[in-house]
Design goal:
The structure is a homodimer. By secondary structure, chain A is of the alpha/beta class. Chain A folds into 3 domains: 107 residues, RuBisCO large subunit, N-terminal domain (Alpha-Beta Plaits), CATH 3.30.70; 259 residues, TIM Barrel (Alpha-Beta Barrel); 113 residues, Jelly Rolls. Chain A contains 16 helices and 27 strands. The first copy, chain A, has a 6-stranded antiparallel sheet, with no helix packed on it. In chain A, strands 2-3-1-4-11 form a 5-stranded mixed sheet. In chain A, α6 packs parallel to α16. The longest helix of chain A has 22 residues. The termini of chain A are far apart. The interface between A and B is large, with 149 and 149 residues.
Chain lengths: 527, 527
C-alpha cells in the first residue's frame, strides 16, 4: 500500500474530473491555483508563494470517461478551522463544471485541532448501557400532531425498549412551544426509563435564528436532555461543531440539504467524505444517511463507504455511529443486521409506527428481531457521562476562585491604571482599577472601579454597550440623556447604548464607583 | 399574468423533476409529504395535518425530458427563520434523484420577518457618493504576499479611483494577524481616501471558528471598517444573516461552495434562487457570482436571472448589487456595461492587476473605460450611514437611562423578591433584589443585591457560570473551593465555574452583597 500524502503532513484531495482527457492535467492545475491564489499561473512568480501556497499536483490518472487528480495543499492554509478548510478544498472549484471531491485525507496535525465526536460510539453505549447490538431509533412525527400524542409516542417507544427517539427535522417551534413540546416528550421518556431501568435517549431538533440558539441550548442543558438533532448543512458545519462542543451534547447529524452535494457523480462531494469524514470532524456522534434501496438514491457501496469513514481510525477522534434511515422495513432487519453489523443505529420512522397500532409492541417487535442476530449485553446505564469539555469552552484562561480584599479603595493584586490608554478623549483626575474580567475570569462582563478627584471628570462619550454604575464613595454627578443627577453611595445608574454621558466630581472628596460593562464591547467615541 | 400563489399567503416552490412523465405527479406528491410530515400518504389521516401541514400540489406540467411541479407550503411551517425554510423547501427532497428547485416565491408576510440587506444599493451609493454608473471592485491577493504589498495594493486601487477593495476569500488569519493585515489595508485605503476625498470601501474576509467570530467583528467595528466579505454556504446562511445584522456591516456575499447547488440541471437549486433570492434574504448587500463566459460555468441567462432577483421588488427588502466576477477582462467592459447596466459591481481581480504593473494606472484605466458608457454623478460620500439597526439587535426590550436611588439597602422601583423561586435547594433568611439586567437593560450581565439575615445562608450549589460578589454591608463568610473566608464591605470574591459554594452570615447584623452574573446562564444545582 502506498504511503498517503496526508502522512507527509499535507492535505490530500482527490478530484474526479469530467473533461476532455487531454485537458485533465490543465484542469488539475487550474484547480490548484484557483483554490489557493486565485490567479492565473503566469501571474504567480514569488517562489515562497509557489512553494507554500499554491496547491501541488500529486498525480493525474485518466480513464475513459473521467480523470482522477490528486492535489495536495499546505494545511496551514486552512488555519485549523472547518470553514476555511471547505473554502480551500472546494470553495471556487465547486463552481467548475465536472469537478467532484471523491476523497479527502487530512494530516494528523490538522485533525488534532478538532475535538470530533464528544461521546462517540463508546460514550453513547456507556450512557445507554447497551452493547454488542445495533441501536434502534425512531422519530416523533408528524408535525401538526397534538402535543400529548407526540409525548405518548416518545414514551411508548422508550417502554418498548427503543434506544433513541428523536424529533423529526420538520419539528420546529418558538422557544416557548419548544419547551412545552420537548419537555413533555422528555418527561414521557424519563418516566418510561424510571419504570424500565433503561436509559432511552431523547434528542430534540434545534433550528432557530442564530442569535436565538443559545436559549434553546440553555434550556436543553437545564432540563438534562443529553443530545440534539442538528442539520449541519442547514445551520453551517462549523456552527453545529461549535454548539455540540460548547454544550457538551450528543450530536445526531441530519443530512438535510446534502443531496445537492452527493447526488450527482459529476459535481459536489461524495457521500463518505461529506457525511463521513466532514460530519465526524464537526462532532457528529451519529450521522444519519439514507439507506440504500429506500426512497432515496444511495447505493449499498456508498452506504458502506460512509460507515467506514465514521469508524476508521482518524487521528484519535472518537468514532461515530452510522445511522441508515429512510424506508427501512421490518423485513429488512436481517439484511440490515448483516450489512451494518453491531455498530449502527437503525433509524426507522414510518414503517415502525405503521407496524402495529400499539407502538410499544411495534418497538418491541423490531428490537426482538434485531436481537435474533446479536447477543445483546446490557449494563446499568451510566448516570453521568462527562465528555472532555463539560464546561463550555472559552479562549480565555480560566481563573480559579479568588478573593480580593479591599483597603481604602484599593484592592489586593489589582493596580490602579491610567483611565484611558491614550488621550483621544478629554478627561481629568480619574484613576481606574480593572477588578474582574480582565484577569482570566470566565465572565461575560468586566467589573472596574473608578475614582475621580475633586474637580475631575470622565470623558464625554458614547458607545454601543451599556454601563451600570454603582456609586460607593463620595458624591458624584452623572450627566446622561441631557439630564444631570447627583449620585451617592449605593445609588445605581444605567446608561443605555449610544447615550452621551459623563461623570463628574464637583465635591471636595474623591468620588468612587464601580462600573460594570460587557466584556466584549465597542470602543467609546466622542459624541 | 396569473396571480402568484405566494400572493395568497403560501410559500410556492417550483421543482424541476427528471423522471418518467407518468411518475411526475407521484413524485410531486412524494415531495409534498416528505418535506412536511415525512410519512407515506396512507399514514396521514388527521384532517388538520392534511390541511395545515402537508404540502399542496398546485400544478404539475410535463414536457419531454422533465416535469415542473409547483408545490405550496404553509409559511408557518418555517417559523419565520431561514434554517427551517431551507429544511421545508429542500431538506430531504435534495436527496431525491432528479429534483431541483427552479423557483421560490415567498409571501410578503414571511419576507417581512427578514431585514434583508442592511444597506442595499441605495445605502452603498450613499456611502460611496457614486451614482449612475457601475462600481469597480477588486480583490487583494495572492495569499502569501507580504503584508506591505497587500496594503500597497489596497491603497493603489483606492488612489486609482476604485470603489470597493475586498480580501480574497482564501485570506484567513488568526485574530492577531487579521488585525495586522486588515489594519494595514484599511489604513492604506483611508489614507488614499483622505487624499482623494472619495470613500473607497475595504471589506476584509472573515472566516473563523464560530466561537471566535465575535472577536473579529468587534475589531472591525472598533476600527470603523464598514463591510465584510462572507461566504454564506460555508458559514451557514443564517450565520451570515445574523452577523451582518448584529454588527450593522455591509455584507458582500461570496459564492464559495455554491456550485454544488447550481451546476447540475438535475439537482440542487438554480442560480437565481440561491445567489439571488436566498442571499438577499440573508442580507447580502452585494452578491458575487461567476460571470458568463469566464472560467466558470454560468450562462448569460443565469446571470441575468440572478440580477433580476437581487433587484426586483421583494416585500420592502432593500435591493442588492449583483457582482459578476471571474475572468472579466478590460476588453469585456463595454459588453459588461451594456449587459448589467449601472446597478452592478464589476469585481475584477487578476486581469485588472495584470493590466498595468502600476495598479493606480490600471484601476484608472478600467474606471475610465466604464465612464465612457455612463455619466457618473459624484456626491460627497456620507460620513455616517446608519442602517435601521445600528445598535446590535437584542430580543430584549430596550431600557433607557435610569437612576435607581438607594435608601437603606432598598432601591427605588426594585422589589425584594424570594431568594429562590422554589425550595429545591436549602437556604435560610435571604432576600434578593434584581437591580439590573432583568428590566430590559441591554447588558450581558445581571446585577443583583442579596442580603442575608444573621444566621442565614444561601444554598450550597454549583453551576457553570461564574459569580462576582462585592460585599457592601456587614460581615459575611464565603465558602468556596473548600476554603472559608470572611469578607467585609468592598471585598470582592470571584467564584469560578463549577465550584461548590455558599455564603453565610455568622454575624449579628445583616450581611449584604452585590452579585454579578452572566445574563444568560445555567441553573444552579446541588453539589
Amino acid at each position: 500500500m502506498s504511503k498517503s500524502i496526508s502522512d507527509t503532513g499535507r492535505i490530500e484531495v482527490t478530484y474526479r474530473l469530467v473533461c476532455d482527457p487531454h485537458e485533465a492535467e490543465t484542469l488539475a492545475r487550474k484547480i490548484a491555483y484557483e483554490q489557493t491564489v486565485e490567479l492565473p499561473e503566469h501571474m504567480v512568480t514569488d517562489p515562497d508563494v509557489l512553494e507554500l501556497v499554491v496547491g501541488r499536483i500529486e498525480s493525474v490518472t485518466v480513464s475513459d470517461d473521467h480523470a482522477l487528480a490528486s492535489i495536495s495543499f499546505n494545511p496551514e492554509l486552512c488555519n485549523s478551522q472547518l470553514p476555511q478548510l471547505l473554502i480551500l478544498i472546494f470553495g471556487n472549484a465547486s463552481i467548475f463544471p465536472g469537478v467532484r471531491i471523491v476523497d479527502l485525507r487530512l494530516p494528523p496535525g490538522l485533525l488534532s485541532c478538532f475535538n470530533g465526536p464528544g461521546f462517540g460510539i463508546d460514550g453513547l453505549r456507556h450512557l445507554l448501557g447497551v452493547y454488542d447490538r445495533p441501536l434502534l431509533a425512531s422519530a416523533i412525527k408528524p408535525r401538526g400532531a397534538p402535543l400529548d400524542a407526540m409525548a405518548k409516542m416518545a414514551g411508548a417507544f422508550a417502554r418498548g425498549g427503543g434506544d433513541i427517539i428523536k424529533d423529526d427535522q420538520n419539528l420546529v417551534d418558538s422557544l416557548t412551544d419548544f419547551k412545552k413540546r420537548t419537555g413533555a416528550c422528555y418527561d414521557a421518556v424519563r418516566k418510561a426509563n424510571e419504570e424500565s431501568g433503561r436509559n432511552c435517549l431523547y434528542f430534540p431538533h434545534v433550528s432557530a435564528p442564530v442569535q436565538e440558539l443559545e436559549g434553546y441550548f440553555e434550556y436543553i442543558k437545564r432540563v438534562g436532555i443529553k443530545g440534539v438533532l442538528l442539520c449541519p448543512m442547514i445551520l453551517g458545519l462549523d456552527t453545529v461543531r461549535s454548539l455540540a462542543s460548547q454544550y457538551a451534547l450528543i450530536m445526531m447529524a441530519h443530512p438535510a440539504l446534502t443531496g445537492s452535494y452527493t447526488n450527482s457523480t459529476e459535481q459536489g462531494i461524495t457521500h463518505e467524505v461529506l457525511l463521513g469524514t466532514l460530519f465526524r470532524m464537526a462532532g457528529a456522534d451519529i450521522s444519519i444517511f439514507p439507506n440504500y434501496g429506500g426512497r432515496f438514491s444511495f447505493s449499498r457501496t456508498e452506504c458502506n463507504a460512509i460507515c467506514e469513514r465514521l469508524t476508521e481510525p482518524l487521528a484519535g477522534l472518537n468514532t461515530s455511529f452510522p445511522a441508515p434511515a429512510g424506508g427501512m422495513q421490518y423485513d429488512d432487519l436481517p439484511e440490515l443486521c448483516s450489512v451494518y453489523g453491531e455498530d449502527a443505529v437503525f433509524l426507522i420512522g414510518g414503517s415502525l409506527q405503521g407496524h402495529d397500532p400499539d407502538l410499544v409492541a411495534a418497538t418491541r417487535a423490531f428490537q426482538d428481531r434485531i436481537r435474533e442476530y446479536f447477543t445483546e449485553r446490557l449494563e446499568t446505564p451510566a448516570q453521568e457521562f462527562l465528555p472532555a469539555c463539560e464546561i463550555p469552552g472559552s479562549v480565555r484562561a480560566i481563573a480559579q476562585h479568588q478573593l480580593i480584599f479591599c483597603q481604602d479603595y484599593n484592592w489586593e493584586d489589582r493596580e490602579s491604571i491610567a483611565y484611558k490608554p491614550d488621550d483621544e478623549l478629554s478627561f481629568a483626575g480619574v484613576r481606574r482599577i480593572e477588578l474582574m474580567g480582565q484577569h482570566g475570569e470566565k465572565t461575560a462582563f468586566d467589573l472596574r472601579y473608578f475614582e475621580i478627584e475633586p474637580g475631575g471628570y470622565t470623558s464625554l462619550e458614547k458607545h454601543r454597550h451599556a454601563h451600570v454604575v454603582i456609586a460607593v464613595r463620595g458624591i458624584g454627578v452623572i450627566i446622561a440623556c441631557d439630564r444631570c443627577d447627583i449620585i451617592r453611595p449605593m445609588d445605581i445608574a444605567y446608561v443605555a447604548p449610544m447615550e452621551i454621558h459623563q461623570i463628574r466630581n464637583n465635591g471636595s472628596e474623591p468620588f468612587g464607583f464601580f462600573c460594570i460593562v460587557d466584556h466584549d464591547r465597542d470602543r467609546p467615541i466622542a459624541p
